[in-house]
Structure formats: structure tokens, C-alpha cells
């Protein structure tokens, strides 16, 4: 069998500006539905969603049957979790809260087999198509995409050295945590936060590394593409669900006023 192609990594390499969505619900059915909705990628979250490694497997299987590419956000820069997530077939991994170049090197090393890294070797895994991919151990890194999440002002200041680490494919700027580190927690739309986000996108462009970000909705997603972000996730499954549910509940109550 052939080594699966990482469509998300290919899109970044070809500068196609992929659009995606965040998956917070932990539902494989919802993840599959999102994959059929027209998005280029789906971020399957392990940091702020009720997902662990066993729960991640059916999410990956669900998305695999759709046109969208899965991106797994890890709970932490932990080599053990990285090893398990890669073995179940993840090819794009996002590492949260990377603060410096040393943490970036540790993240990359956890995705590489020796002598280039410390990933443990397992021959009978979903990643190897259960032993069916010839030469997997020497070829796997070519289709693994390493995304590092920059979430604080201190980390943004070190962005050039973090992004320069060999094996880093992309930088993701976390707007909510960045705003918190600026003393503006919950104020992502504050002009100072938006300027910092625009500056970070510019810094990534100068370095030549594609930058990604999460937008609160389609209007802000267009803004972020305008700032120079190469890939944007617009909203989340729970956010989309709750926005529609609240609007429908309000409309239904208003439509019933005065009746009876």
C-alpha cells in the first residue's frame, strides 16, 4: 500500500489558503457531517474538548471518508501522546503553547523516528496501514505536518527563532490566549489584539512559514485572510450549533407571542 498523502500539508505547500472548522463536540457523526460541508480541514481538539486517544480514533475514521483533512490539536507537548496519536493515523499535529525554540525542537523530535527524533517504532498500527505501507519508517516524516501554536506575547517575540526550527511546517496563532497574555482576556476584537494578530501574520510571511488562526465567524475569517494568514478555521461545531439553536429558540418564542 502507498503512504497516505497529507492533503492539508500539500495545501499549505501549494499556498491554497485552506478554510476549516473546529470540532469541539467529540462526536464522530458531527465530525463526518462537517467533513461533507465544504471545509478543507477539520481541527479535532484534544486540548479543550472531551477527547483522549481512544476517542480520537473514531473521529479520524469519520473524517477519513470525507473531502476534509483532519488536524489534531494535542492536549500538550507530550511525546507519549504524540506517539499514540501518530500511530492511530494522524498526519497533522498541532502543539499548544509553544514558548521557545527548545520546545519547538522537542515537538518536532516527537514526530520523527530515530536518528532524527524519538518517536517509538510500532509496525502494526493504523498509520502503517497495519503493516501494509512499505518503507513507512523512512518515509513517514514527509507526510507529517507539524504546527506550533503561539499563544502569548512572549512567544510572538520569539516567533522567528521558533519558526526557524527544522521540521516546523506552520505556525498557529491562538487569538484568545494571546489576548489574555496582553491583559485583554476575552477581548479578541480589541484593536490592540487585532494589531498583534496582523503583526504576527506579517512576521510569519517574512520568515516564509504559513500562519493559521481561528476566527469567530466568516466575517473575521475574511479579515484574517486579509492580514496574510494562510489558513483559517472559521468557528466550531458547538459554536455553530448554539448560535443557530439560540436564534431558533428566540424566533419561536417571538412567533408565539400574542397567540392563544
Describe this structure in words.
The structure is a single chain. This protein has 260 residues and is of the alpha/beta class. It has a single domain (7-255), classed as Alpha-Beta Barrel (TIM Barrel), CATH 3.20.20. It is 43% helix and 15% strand. The chain contains 12 helices and 8 strands. It has helices at residues 7-13, 28-35, 53-64, 79-87, 101-109, 136-139, 153-157, 159-163, 175-181, 191-207, 218-227, 237-256; strands at residues 19-23, 41-45, 69-73, 92-95, 145-150, 170-173, 211-215, 231-236. Strand 3, helix 4 (79-87) and strand 4 (92-95) form a beta-alpha-beta unit. Helix 2 runs parallel beside helix 3. It is globular and about 70 Å long.
Strand order of the largest sheet: 1-2-3-4-5-6-7-8
CATH homologous superfamily descriptor: Phosphoenolpyruvate-binding domains
Major sheet summary line: 8 strands, parallel, barrel
The class by helix and strand makeup works out as alpha/beta
Calculate the terminal CA-CA distance, rounded to whole Å: 66 Å
What is the count of β-strands? 8
In percent, how helical is the residue content? 40-55%
* CATH architecture classification: Alpha-Beta Barrel
Order of helices and strands: HEHEHEHEHHEHHEHHEHEH
Uncertain parts: none
Write down the overall mean pLDDT: 97
Radius of gyration: 19 Å
CATH topology annotation = TIM Barrel
Kindly report the oligomeric state of this protein.
single chain
Which CATH class applies here? Alpha Beta
Number of domains: 1
The proportion of residues in beta strands is 15-25%
